């Protein structure tokens, strides 16, 4: 079978990303994507088309035993090695935040697993009170498409926000000023499309701003949530 044919690659990729390609056929397709660039490209294109639909997935509250297992795993994970960000006071409370990625499993369980899975970043309350195992409770999950062209944010916990305030998402580089990715919702999912959002980005941060966003192009309010990318 000629998998370089665009129409065949598109049809198979659509079924794979939508989750209708199952069993042995799905496993065979995953193996084929490793050697066929046309299939990989088709998968990336379908992920970009369907990613906004993840905003319609209703959150599922897992049984208590699931959270207990997650808490035990978090408590057993060592804190990550400090980097340049640890020199900043706002980052110091975030030691061990990377281990909170386990919480995103509940959000992603209903989604088909692509050949190149999305990158997930957990944003925790900056300067928050440590929870179980000394880990700061997570407040947002940011899921970035494999090609870095789209990003979806969603609060894990309900965020109370005054009517005259807004939340603005920022891409934080290893050095230099952060760049705005736009306003995000405090209640539901927000789809952000800003080109290659991962380029020159070491972390994501959320600041408290006026209703229309920062008037200066830089954060003007306090940093409420922050999460770093892991290599």
From TrEMBL:
Database matches in InterPro entries: Anti-sigma-K/W_factor, RskA_C
Entry's transmembrane regions: 89-111
Annotated Anti-sigma K factor RskA C-terminal domain residues: 98-223
Keyword Transmembrane recorded: yes
Keywords from the named record: Membrane, Transmembrane, Transmembrane helix
Lineage: superkingdom: Bacteria
Name of this protein: Anti-sigma factor
Organism: Piscinibacter gummiphilus
Lineage: Bacteria, Pseudomonadati, Pseudomonadota, Betaproteobacteria, Burkholderiales
